[in-house]
Structures are given as C-alpha cells and as structure tokens.
Fold this protein.
Amino acid sequence: MALPDKINPDELDIDIVSDNDDISTLNCRESDSTDPLGVQDFLETKAQIYSKNNLTSLWRVKYKGKIVAFFSLSMSSIGLDDVPRSKQVKEMTARYPALLIGQMGVDKNYRGRKIGDAICKHCIGLARKFNERIACACITLQTTEDKASYYQQYFFETTRKLRNGQVAMYLSTT
Ligand SMILES: CC(C)(COP(=O)(O)OP(=O)(O)OC[C@H]1O[C@@H](n2cnc3c(N)ncnc32)[C@H](O)[C@@H]1OP(=O)(O)O)[C@@H](O)C(=O)NCCC(=O)NCCS
C-alpha cells in the first residue's frame, strides 16, 4: 500500500523501546548515504550500550506496527554559554537543567511525512511536563548548521557554534 504524503500524528505510536522492538533495522542516513551526525552509527554501535547503562532512554515511533523512527533522551545540563542572555539568571547557578535530545532519526523511506514533527512536539511536551515536577529549564540538542532551520520552526535558538562545526540549540520549557 502506498504511503500517504502526510501521516496523521494520531496514527503514530510513540513509546520507549521494549525488548521486542528492533530499531537497528532503521536506515537514518542522509539521502546521499552519508551520516554527518552519526545517527546511524549511534543506532548500530552505541544505542544498546547507552541504554543498558542508563546513559540515554531510547524511544521508537511505530506506524501501522512498523518501527519508522527513533530518538534518544537524557537528563542533562547546559552552561551559561548555551543559555540565551534573556534566560540567564544573573549571579546564580552556572548550569541549567535540560532535557537532551541526543539522537533522532526517521527512516529514509518515511521522511517528509511529519514524523520528525511528531517527535519534536512529543519531546517538547515531555520536557514541559517534567518541568512541573523536576526543574527542566530547557531542551537542548546539537546539530549541523544546515539543520538548525529545521528546529527553528519549533522556536529553538542557536546559542553557540561548537568546535566540531555543529551548533548548540536551546528551547525554554516556559
Ligand atoms: C531531520 C529528520 C529527523 C526530519 O524528519 P521528517 O520526518 O522527514 O521531518 P518532517 O516530515 O516533520 O518535516 C519535514 C520538513 O522539514 C524540512 N527539512 C528536512 N530536513 C531539513 C533540514 N536539514 N533543514 C531544514 N528543513 C529541513 C523538509 O523540507 C520538510 O519541510 P516541509 O514540511 O515544508 O515540506 C529526518 O530528515 C532525518 O532523520 N534525517 C537524518 C538524521 C538526522 O539528521 N537527524 C537529526 C539529527 S539533529
């Protein structure tokens, strides 16, 4: 059956990866088969180890019973360099509690159908919910400069250019 141009977000099942879910079958490379952010490398060589050692939580997205995307979330904190001036609390803590979107990838065959959109909205919703109970001032992620505009649509700001050429992005939970 042909895939619809846009998938209804209500048809996406977003949950933590369980023992029965195999996310290693995903192909999250770029269309030219490169992997500039190491998303595929993470999936194939690091995801299980990170998860087993509580370094990240692995999430998967299913559409009609098939795993079509994944993302990873961790508790984190960011320094003042990564907090926009307007959000800095003067002469107080130098570190701000954050939810880190460590990795995120939609399978090549399922892109452009708002699955990435559903993941971003899910993460933003989770961070806001956490923040009601355990302070989580912001969401942070790192990406390539050319991808920053993808996250800007959710009001993420670029706060810093990193030494590896990537950029750090910030979104307040409030
Ligand atoms: C980035 C990614 C997660 C987006 O997932 P997706 O499900 O295709 O995204 P959506 O369908 O929600 O959004 C697609 C929109 O984003 C835009 N988009 C995709 N890549 C973009 C980029 N690099 N920069 C800016 N916009 C981008 C598309 O043009 C499209 O725009 P439209 O809605 O106006 O047509 C997916 O392309 C992917 O997995 N890429 C490889 C791994 C990766 O880069 N992960 C992110 C690591 S930070």
Q: What stands out?
A: The chain has a mean pLDDT of 96. The helical segments are 39-52, 115-133, 148-152. The longest strand covers residues 66-79. Residues 99 and 126 are 9 Å apart (CA to CA).
